[in-house]
Amino acid sequence: MRNMNWLKRNGLILALMLVPALVILLLWDRFPAEVPIHWNLKGEIDGYAPKFPGLWYGPLAMLVINVIFWLIPVLDPKKNTDSFQKTLNRIQVIFNVFFVGIMIITAAVALGYEVAVDRWVINGVLLLFALLGNYMGKIRPNYFMGIRTPWTLESEDNWVKTHRMAAKLWVGGAIVLMIINMFVSPDIFWPIMMAGVLVMVLIPAGYSLYLYKNPS
Questions:
Q1: Which of 11, 126, 144, 213 is the most exposed place for a label (fewest CB within 10 A)?
Q2: Please, which pLDDT band fits residue 28 given cuts at 50, 70 and 90?
Q3: pLDDT at 41
Q4: φ, ψ of residue 48 in degrees (nearest 5)
Q5: Which letter does DSSP use for residue 42 in this model?
Q6: Which DSSP string corresponds to 137-173?
Q7: How many CA atoms are closer than 13 Å to the CA of 81, on its beta-carbon side?
Q8: pLDDT-based confidence at 186, cuts 50/70/90?
Q9: What is the distance between the alpha carbons of residues 177 and 194, in angstroms, rounded to a whole number?
Q10: Can you give the pTM of this predicted structure?
Q11: Phi, psi (5° rounding) for residue 25?
């Protein structure tokens, strides 16, 4: 029964994990001997690898990330993941969709299609932040995911307030960055995005310290 529940809960995730492998296997003969594996900030290819193992780096990374997600309930000292297991699963699905998208873009470029990799990756990362922000307020104290400062880990009230604030900041910040991305070139936007992401991480951390020093 436990195995059936696990399969039911992770069915979509397992299906998403199979997508890149199926694409690679079905189109294997169409891929060139060397495939792109890295791009610079201008969206230009600056790294190649043989199609084996080059095409399998993505599925391997996807497998590792999913194993980490599955181990969180076992390894987390707080043993608190049951209280937000559905949220954890949804976040795991979001990460899988993101990686599938990146791998499909990579495969399309390798097959000779013209793809604005920089734009797609930027928008994908920002959408990832917005979606994660949407669930940020539902995550409960743990040592693997969220704004893990000494102050949030010490107090559940601090954790909840910090993550509710971070949720609004991440969604709003991602939307603002998406709008800016429409008006500037990718090589100019990358530093802006890195600064924006840094702000979205540092402000919640600072807010958790403020809550610690100013308990209500």
A1: 213
A2: very high
A3: 77
A4: -125, 160
A5: T
A6: TT--S-SSSS---HHHHH-HHHHHHHHHHHHHHHHHH
A7: 20
A8: confident
A9: 10
A10: 0.91
A11: -70, -40
